[in-house]
Amino acid sequence: MPKKEIAADRFVEAHPEYDGRGVLVAIFDSGVDPAADGLKVTSDGKPKILDVIDCTGSGDVDTSTVVKADDSGCIVGTSGNSLVVNSSWKNPSGEWHVGCKLVYELFTSTLTDRLKKERKKRWDEKNQEAIAEAVKQLDEFDKKHTKVDDTNMKKNREDLQSRVDLLRKLADSYDDKGPVIDAVVWHDGEVWRAALDTQSLEDEPERGKLAEFLPLTNYRLERKYGIFSKLDACTCVLNIYNEGNILSIVTDSSPHGTHVAGITSAYHSKEPLLNGVAPGAQLISCKIGDSRLGSMETGTGLVRALIAAVDHKCDLINMSYGEPSLLPDYGRFVDLVNEVVNKHRLIFISSAGNNGPALSTVGAPGGTTSSIIGVGAYVSPAMAAGAHTLVEAPPEGLEYTWSSRGPTVDGDLGVSISAAGGAMAPVPTWTLQHRMFMNGTSMSSPCACGGVALLLSAMKAEHLPVSPYSVREALENTCIPVGGSPEDKLSAGQGLMQVDKAYDYIQKLHAVPSVRYQIKITQSGKSAPTSRGIYLREADFCQRSTEWTVKVEPKFHDDASNLEQLVPFEECIKLHSTGEGVVKAPEYLLLTHNGRDFNIIVDPTTLSDGLHYYEVYAIDCKSPWRGPLFRIPITITKPQAVKSRPPLTVFKGMSFVPGHIERKFVEVPTGATWVEVTMKTSGFSTARRFFIDSVQISPLQRPIKWESVATFSSPSSKSFSFPVEGGRTMELAIAQFWSSGVGSHDTTSVDFEIEFHGISINKQEIILDGSEAPVRVDAEALLLLENLAPAAVLNKVRIPYRPVDSKLSTLSAERDQLPSGKQTLALLLTYKFKFEEGAEIKPYIPLLNNRIYDNKFEAQFYMISDTNKRVYAMGDVYPETAKLPKGEYTLQLYLRHDNVQYLEKMKQLVIFIEKKLDEKESIQLSFYTQPDGPVIGNSSFKSSVLIPGAKEAFYVAPPAKDKLPKGVAAGSVLVGAISYGKVSFGVNNEGKNPEKNPVSYSISYIVPPTPIDVDKGKGSSSSCTKSVAEQLEEEIRDAKIRVLSNIKQSTDEGRADWKKLSISLKSEYPKYTPLLAKILEALISQNNFEDKIQHYEEIVGAADEVIESIDTDELAKYFSIKSDPEEEGAEKTKKKMDTTRDQLADALYQKGLALAEIELLKGKKVVDKEDAKADEGSSAQPDLFEENFKELQKWVGVKSSQYGTIFVIRERREGRFGTALKVLSDMIQEDGSPPKKKFYDLKISLLEEIGWAHLVSYEKQWMSVRFPPSLPLF
What we know:
By secondary structure, the protein is an alpha+beta fold. The chain has eight domains: 4-53 and 253-509, Rossmann fold, CATH 3.40.50; 59-110 and 179-250, no CATH class; 120-173; 512-638, Immunoglobulin-like (Sandwich), CATH 2.60.40.3170; 648-757, GOLD domain (Jelly Rolls), CATH 2.60.120; 765-796 and 921-1006, Immunoglobulins (Immunoglobulin-like); 803-909, no CATH class; 1029-1266, Serine Threonine Protein Phosphatase 5, Tetratricopeptide repeat (Alpha Horseshoe), CATH 1.25.40.710. The strands form 14 sheets. Strands 1, 2, 13, 16, 17, 18, 19 and 20 form an eight-stranded mixed beta sheet that branches. Strands 41, 44, 47, 50, 52, 53, 57 and 58 form an eight-stranded mixed beta sheet that branches. The protein has a five-stranded mixed beta sheet with strand order 24-31-30-26-28, with no helix packed on it. It is globular and about 110 Å long. The mean pLDDT is 92.
């Protein structure tokens, strides 16, 4: 565990009692395992972890269903399982809250993969036993029956063969979605408690029962945890919310959080070398990495974590998470962090990011937020030798190559300090090891956090006032610089933090007011935007002198006294500039509470090309020992102009050693849209690994970054191409990885050649408006000869949707009341969509997507589910593609904020569902030299050579109407990409896929209304032969039937009315098949009957009435003779006959199902009473089910998904379970729509009868996936 680098070891050795004692740290991460090695107690014997919280809600279980136990102490869980509660558990109310959860939803992908392998191994063993037995039965049959002529014997053999085939097929299609665990919550008279039933995870059948689980309450009350099973070894914490209606099962979403916590404060009494930086500090774990999203942080998780940190009165927050951002120091989370730091005095420390080595790669929030201390990652020679086990360590410490660099796009330094960025630290028990090595700024941040915990421990013990402002000042002003040039501050911040020196500094600082200095800079003559530093990046700014107005405002904590602190505040400041001759600033400044303005002049005109970094810093004239009170960072990246034609830049003979970075800044010529670069290496023996980054910055965009990690031998050459923006500075950062080549002592020689290419066009985005008119494109090559070879494809369809429902609610104060006292609100928007066939889709919320930290909305989360409530996809700011089968779907979008007006404006929020078109549906667009080309069909345009300075025009044609994908609706938008040029190396794909071109642009086509079918309805205007009276009578009859269909039978009164009217209508229209079919349909839909046998007998009777109303001879005659489709009235007759046949088949089918149910209830076959009397002297009695089946078989295919259930039941009656399962499996496959529960219930019952217990268990687990009791909570 690296502690020496930040002088933590020296400090604790000198002050053993200041080892973090009395300090509480909130770990915002993927969750901390309280059972992990070193995370149980502090150095002074106190509990290490005071609370473990899942702030994301990913482990929430809906336990709002309340049940009572029966006389035997059993309750029924929402999974349908019968559960025995422990008789010793106190439950005065007798009410048990129940819920269930698919356990894999709580586990990491790594743990899930391990469990799947273990479970598959056990399942395979059982399946092989079943296969062996099935093969044995088949062999015995074949030996016994050498010649099989009898039909029944053939069917019996087919059944045995089907069993063997089915078992083998299932072995190939096995897909373990994990078992379901039941959860039970109750109030014991004092606190809420919960227990889990985890039998399905255990090897032994008697283990994991609910009654054996040690009940847990909220972790902060008793600090107890459990595990699911010995097999997974995964720790879980249970927290209960909302009066027992929500159970939060807390697990970690990756080992990351436990590792971070261990670096901060692990304690090992017997092995002090394994201790974290502050072994005396206590922790709370705030899980912000959502298990549903692979450990991605969510807005909900971030805000709840801040609430928890304030609620627990934490001293420190460590957050080793981050994302790129559009706007620095901006967003809802940033606003709340500012409140937590400035009002509640928490010190917030976070990782700067792992996106280096290029400049301006710091991530949010750690590297972009003023109130957060952003930490870079440093590696020392000792770490290289010990933790990284290198053959030879570097001679001196340095920043890791991948550590993100500043400045931010608004000029702030970005990285505040650095700390050791790698460690061997504890990991969760489910990893089956105590600790592992990880590196990253995720590790440097907790290292720094532990160091700050040591400082706070000392300050508290010595009763020194603690303020984020004074601590930050002490940290930054006592760092050891990393590197020998001013520019290294952009990598390491003020340097490597030193705990002992910061402590000495704090000793002298306690009498000084705790103040932060807010810096706002504007260019003179411009009102906006303000920045926190000066960043001259573009060529225009580097070729002239500029003047900047700096406003400095001292900011006290929110509780500061006006008279005692604000009014007396006055500092005499001397300003220093490190850029003599380049940066000019006033010499002195008298600063009061209301702040002061002063001007800075920056003149970069005499500077050489490349990177230059300066500071204007302020020294207190009365206390110069303090060092800089504030700093104004000034970064100048003076680019090299490309003057040659063709535009080519070559950097020859660059020398590299491990960790060396070359930064080249080039002014991309106007007109360039992509570059082709070639890197050549030589002069070394062992392979070398290089990071190659390119970064450009444009207003209100994330930095435009291209990156590659490549390994080179000597000599070797590699070529790359990537997009650029003309007229803007491009940084090219080439870095030999810090550990690559260590020990060989060979210097790497690198030549780098950059050739700029470009085709300028007059439209950055092409929109085809749905008309037949093509769109004109003007193309021009400004730099050199280019091959103009346009290619365009429409390969996605984007469909807009508005919500069908919106619901605004106030969230529980228990987790969602902000530190300010404001209550968080939630808006739930519901969208509906349907696919006629399977599709690969991605939802888009244009207003909100791709922004988490730089977003004023607190949170967004969506889930997509089918009609069975099965969730197919979840996501938040970064939507991902999901494969959906045919069917109807619901997308629910969940938004959070404390401002009801903001949410009200979102109630009609438009989202897009983008469906990927398969290759055969994708449309390759055509190009023409004339506007009439798409209609006339000539003048096609393929390619040409663009001469610099000369424009060439062509037309992009809309897709032909017959090429549009099937079912695409008017108003939808086909989207894709268009490219214009070709790279000079590699495969060009001849324009088949423009998205693979280094530069492509968006193209879209608005789908117009479908053409009117002018032939529709022709020839169908035959005169009506019915009189007005006859038509009126039919209308009245049909109206009566509609009234009957609309009567609700949910009440006794409704059932009585329905029965009375049905009897009346049957007497009035005794042979009218549609009426009788409606009566049968209504009987089938009833579900509140008492006498089941009577109910099914009524269905049989109603089905018989339908059958008897149909002239089957006439029907058979019609379908046996091929009729002339052109004959007048043929279409109408066919439709009528098809409908009649369907009514007959449905009646026979429903009758068969009812007969089968009666058989099951009575336990014997159903026979006709009259026939039974007539055949009393005969041993054989007529089988009504079999007779009905044979009649149905005459009219329809009995193995289809529509009627196959009856065939399956028949095979089941005959004991041919293998054949029944085979047909049932085919039906399920053929059905294609969302799964039907009745099919799977039947499948399970067949598997139970055949005796395949392992398949019964497997299918029951899948039932919980396909048919969950409810949608998961957000």
